[in-house]
Amino acid sequence: MLPREVRTAIAAYLRDADRLIPGQLAGCYLVGSTALGAYRPGRSDIDLIAVLASGPLTGARLLRRLRALHLAQAPRVLAGAVRTRRVHATCNVAFVPVGQMTRPVTEIEPLASHNGHEFFAGAAFDVNPVMWRVLADRGIALRGPATGSWQLDPELDRLTSWNRANLAGYWQAQLNRIRAGRSPLWPQAVEWNVLGPLRLHATIATGQVLSKDEAGAYGQQLFAASSAIIGTARALLAGEPVPADPPREDWRQLTAEVMDRVITEAKTLATD
Fold this sequence. Notes:
Layout: H1 4-20, E1 25-31, H2 32-35, E2 46-52, H3 59-72, H4 74-84, E3 91-97, E4 112-115, E5 118-121, H5 129-138, E6 140-143, H6 159-180, H7 187-206, H8 212-222, H9 227-238, H10 251-266
Parallel strand pairs: 2-3
Antiparallel strand pairs: 1-2, 1-6, 3-4, 4-5
């Protein structure tokens, strides 16, 4: 069974969807950490793929309603943040037209998406080979048919190249920013920048999509010299006490070191 706060958030989101885009939500699927069994109450977000059917709402009118749907969850999210002092259980959603669900994932043209406080018209980062692999293998249907009914094409032959490009682009830029900084690294930055690249490395090496904590365990075995900072990232992810070693003043350097190792080694792994 899904965690209670996930069930509550999803029920509220679907009610708002039925009010704002009545009859046009043909499917809704859980992906991300929740689908991987790694949701952390009070800490995680909720990632969804929403399939939209044709209907009276189109074009700019539909986008306005999707923006309103995004904003409708703000009171619930803010109330939760006041209780826990951390934003969590935010529904991050990618909207895909029903007629495009059978396309190869890199050819899909999403209608829109929202992530955190941001709304994107005509774009959705989660429409990519990694998330489509999760959707096909472990996606949880909240509305609509089982994921197998959509004849999804995650383009598994592009899984390695997509992850490599993400490491060389976004994560290399993140590494450069960390190297350029001088102040102690924030805890969330350690968690994000240590575990994120490890997830991609694991997918390149094994073809599997791991949760952040699973990627941390994988990284501690593979990159023993960086085990301490990876352990710190896993503790931060879990909301557990942070080990005294390494000290916080070393977090920035150690985070940069493990990121560099992961990005560099990923280049040597087998190609598609």
